[in-house]
Amino acid sequence: MALSQLLKKPAAGTLVPGNVKGLRRRVRRAGVSPRFVWAALVLLFSAAPLAQAREKEKLAYGEGLIVNVPYPEAEVEQVVQDVAQNGIIRGTKEYNKDENIGGAKAADSTRVFPPWTEGGRVFYKVRLQALDPRNFKDSGDVGTLAVRYVLQPQGEKNTVLRINAVFVEDFRRTVHASNGSVESSEYKDIRDHLDAIDLMKQQAAEAEKERQQQPLKKQSPVMNGEGAPTAARVVQPTAQPAAAAAMVAHDGVASDASAVKQPPSEAAPVQTLEQQVQDLRRQVERLVKAPGAPLKSAPFHTATTLSPLPTGTEVLILISTPYWYGVETRAGQHGWMSRDDLELLP
Asked: Domains plus CATH for the chain?
């Protein structure tokens, strides 16, 4: 009798005690060693988890990333376009040397991806002659590394974002799928940009509310009696810089609260107050470098220019990021400026 017949499952689909006894009787009649039968059972039940593990490992490559972003398509498109043009592919590296891979360029299409036919806006970032990029399955040669971004609107306030990365060898044309590190790192960069824009909007709304309340604050000292107007004229210059310093303290512009000198309990000379004002201004204000720079609507180079600012224009820093400042002009206009376009006050 064949072993497959001996191991045939009962009708109920489970090994209950009665079925086990019947299996033993059939094994004795066939002259097969019970130890051999139990060893075969162990192999059968242990092989299934191994096959599932191999299948799971296989599916871990090439899945890409699909996420619903809680921002309108127009805002997400601006950010994705800027990320596609920043020249950096994150989440991978060559030779284990660099943190990311540089030298990438934005593209309208690339041969390493098939044409996209499912609608939406598509952007590509391509790095030619990438050498053995990490986090791609079995990569080990020179080839083209590419990232594809697909935007599809999901109503008026949400956008579906798809990100896929792939590496294709130049010589053998072998395709190496990503393990997801590139996709997740690129999405983090995009989300950081979007969150910074959202923070800028909130900050602008708070600044506008504060500006509307300023007339009431200026009138309140007059109601306190004689001498109040004089005190207001002395202390007033420190109000705006001090408030601005508090607003940006958590962003690294003026993070050390101890650096701001506290006024003594006794009446300080006017000269000392002026020095404090100057110190605060150097911390929270910047000048536009020559030959001038644009005030952007968002922290990326492809964003709309709100207005060109001439050389020497003073701006107040509200938000600090690694590459951009969220600023306010003396005219009350809010926007973003590159750090490279600004310099410290003399």
From this structure: 3-59 (no CATH), 65-194 (3.30.530), 225-343 (2.30.30.40)
